[in-house]
Amino acid sequence: MPTNRDTLELLGRRHPEWQEHAQRWRWLLDSLEGGERYRQAVYGFDRRGLPVRNLIRHKREYPDPREAGSSSPIPGADPFSPSVISPDPATFATDDDYELRRARTPVPTFLAEAIETHLARIYAREIKRSGPKALEAWWQNIDGCGTTIDQWMAETVAPLLLTLGQLDLCFDHPPAPAGEEIETRADLVRLGLDACVASVILPENMLWWRLDPTGQRYEECLVLERHETADGPETRYRQWTAEGSTLYDESGTVLAETPHPFGRVPIVRVFDRKKPRCRNIGQSRYEGIAERQREYYNRDSELILSDTTQAHPLLQGPEDYIQPDGTVPIGPGWLLPKKKNVQGGQATYEGFDVVEFPKESAESIRRNKADIRDDVDRDASLVRTPVREAVAQSGLAKLIDQADGNNRLAKIARVLAQAERVAAEFALMVLGDGPPAAELLAGIEILYPAEFDLYTADAVARAAADFQAIAGRAGALPTCEALMLSRLLRLCLPGLADPQYSECEREIASYVEERSRARKRDGTAPYDEVARRDVFQDINVI
Questions:
Q1: Tell me, what's the pLDDT at 472?
Q2: If DSSP states are collapsed to H, E and C, what string results for 141-208?
Q3: Quick one: the chain helix, strand, coil %, rounded to 5?
């Protein structure tokens, strides 16, 4: 029988890979959410006791060391503590350059924009699904709240999976209502307890785990949960095993024991990509965009402070005009008098000068911001839309690049399709109260799109016209021209299925061969004299 000491030791376990990556996961989620969460997030404290945030503090923005004894961490340093109400950042912006930057700098949303752009393209196409009837019914209500599989994947699973590079999916029967006694299978059906409820577990809440020898499934794990009670949200811990789950409170007291018949832990971790030096940690393909988002945020704040400072120039004038209280007397009508000096019978006046601020540093920051924005676009395979004559064009209008963008979207679609298939397999396990039969698994088919219409209508029309013009002149070199037209077809129409490409290439080869035979039959020379002369001239130039 485990003692309370053993239970507390269990609740205090943290996996080494969790300890290494937990803060990074929280930062990635803050970058996705943006707004006040990103502005107020704290990732520890520096050597002087001040919070470490996404906005980096300059050396000159630290309090005077002579006042260190009377200074304290900024109120609301942990704004998400239930006992602390975070103040508005502008509260401290009046006499602190760092807080001024933090209060006035808008949080960029590069990460959320890139993920939303990619997912909008993927889920704009039809997702084809087929499977057993029980699975098709579950796809219409995957969490007991009427959420469909399309909504769950597009709005919850996909953004989190792509942001974090990994996500834990949990599948279980719904809990029994309070006061209800479950004695027979009919009671389960009557109360809807034979259904499957899917949920997500953020990586930061999967505190500890033990994998099987293959590294593919959990043998045991410890999950942090937040439960709503009459006294507000409280922290709970749930230990999962192949036989059931046990719920503990923070003191180690057992609150509930729930056996299950699944024969394995009903939690699976799906990945975008795995980190090569970790066994159970994913790699986000959007992490570089999150890094650039933070750098842009800091540079934007420095530019705001620079522009604010330069908007209030410094005045340099005679020293004896300055009063003991540090003020300069101003006459009626805001007239600033000049000091009169009389020496040797001549009167001179000391002028007032405005101190000009150097502009080069601010311009450098502006150029760097533009470079960062371009880097983000390249990471997301975004390009600016072509400018048409007599049409006003926004500098922020973007399209997904046709060549690289289609390949990137196809890879993301394969990741999402694999995650959805794993979810379907676990749902069948819960619905059948055990590992599903092989024939049921073989009947699951989930097809995500592999081709995406990324060209504009004008670009498609131009490409079709150019392709037809090239094909119309074919026949001189049938083998070479068939290969070149096939390659051009793949560039113009990426993402088609292999049978479609094969059919198109056969059609091209047949057409070019027929053109070649027609040339020979009509006695038409492959090239006229002018074309031959141009070819030899190009060769001589080379």
A1: 79
A2: CCCCCCCCHHHHHHHHHHHHHHHHCEEEEEEECCCCCCCCCCCCHHHHHHHCCCCCEEEEECHHHEEE
A3: 45, 15, 35
Q: What are the CA-CA distances from residue 501 to residues 190, 453, 498, 535 (Å)?
A: 52, 16, 5, 32
Do residues 200 and 458 touch, judged by C-beta distance below 8 A?
no
Residue of 245, 167, 260 whose CA lies nearest to 206? 167
Rounded Cα distance between 244 and 256, Å, is 11
Distances (CA, A) of 223 to 241, 252, 425: 11, 14, 22
Q: Can you tell me the mean pLDDT for 271-289?
A: 95
CA atoms within 13 A on the CB side of 180: 14
Are 238 and 246 in contact by the 8 Å Cβ rule? The answer is: yes
Report how far apart, in Å, the C-alpha atoms of 245 and of each of 200, 239, 241 are. Answer: 16, 5, 6
How far is residue 318 from each of residues 181, 321, 328, 349, 350, measured CA to CA in Å?
A: 91, 6, 10, 10, 7
Task: For residue 467, give the DSSP letter.
Answer: H
- Ramachandran sector of residue 241 (left: φ over 0; alpha: ψ -120 to 50; beta: rest): beta
pLDDT tens, position by position, 469-501 = 878 778 777 888 888 888 887 777 766 677 888
Domain boundaries in the chain? 120-286+408-447, 314-355, 457-541
Name the helix (H) or strand (E) containing 382: strand 382-384
DSSP one-letter code for 334: G
Question: How far apart, in Å, are the Cα atoms of 103 and each of 205, 358, 461?
Answer: 30, 25, 49
Q: How many CB atoms lie within 10 A of CB 24?
A: 17
Quick one: pLDDT band at residue 219, thresholds 50, 70, 90? very high
Residues 459-497, buried b or exposed e (16+ Cβ, 10 A)? Answer: eeeebeeeeeeebeebbbebeebbeebbebbeebbbbee
Pick from 14, 134, 110: nearest CA to 425: 134
DSSP structural state of residue 532: H
Over the stretch 51-109, which tens digit does the pLDDT of each residue have?
999 999 998 888 877 665 544 444 444 544 544 555 666 666 667 889 989 999 999 99
